Amino acid sequence: MNSIKTENLSIAYGNFEIVKDLNLNIPKGKITTIIGANGCGKSTILKTIARILQAKSGVIYLNDSDIQGLSSKSIAKKMAVLPQGPQAPNGLTVGELVAYGRFPHQSGFGKLMKEDREKIDWALKIIGMDEFKDRPIESLSGGQRQRVWIAMALAQETEILLLDEPTTYLDLAHQLEILQLLEKLNKEQGRTIVMVIHELNNAARFADYMVGIKDGNIVCKGTPKEIMTKDNLRKIFNIEAEVVIEPINNKPVCITYNLV
To answer: For a FRET experiment, which of 38, 124, 196, 213 has its CA 20 to 30 Å from that of 202?
Structure first.
């Protein structure tokens, strides 16, 4: 079963077509990572699925329902989106930003209820930012801000998480923390997670399913072992790579590469 499915999806900026006739299936309850070179259309595809961008043509299905027939609030109850490089309005505290994730679950005047506050506190604690709840966003480092944005997505409490470069600005330890957290949400809560990730080894390590994109088209799709091959990496990135299977997680790792 697929959580997200596109049929003949085409996306354009003005007269410039970025993606043409894309047929993409995102498996339900799995972690999917999307890889590809800069400018290949990865983020554009994610934004269009999230309805941040409007498709030129084609259909996007969310749990078998045409996304165009769903209200924004209905979509937000099912799918949380973390775009690349999000910006918060000046003057917000950490807790106030995370509280925006509860908007789809509120009614009336949008007053935070006990359950909302519990979810906000849970999200901050799980990403290790609970002590920063009353801090202004602008006082945080880039990595800390990224973790707060992820907390907002978690507080939204959706079955699907779309994340565009969720480990941007994070050091190696915090990258691992965030990716292991997302893996835990997937394994323990069955959440479907879709991530655009540049770092190939992380993309392979944490994925159940991978999609390789080049020039707005799917070059390959399958398990990490099926995707992380010399031939596929040559097609996607124009590199000659050496790939081995590492013994701890039994996942493919790119140990070195050169330009073709």
So the answer is: 124
Residue 195 near residue 34 (C-beta atoms within 8 A):
yes
Please write the tens of the pLDDT for every residue from 41-70. 999 999 999 999 999 999 999 999 999 999
Whether residue 156 has pLDDT greater than 90: yes
CA dist list (Å): 80 to 132, 195, 201: 23, 12, 25
Torsion of CA 111, 115, 118, 122, to 10 degrees: -110
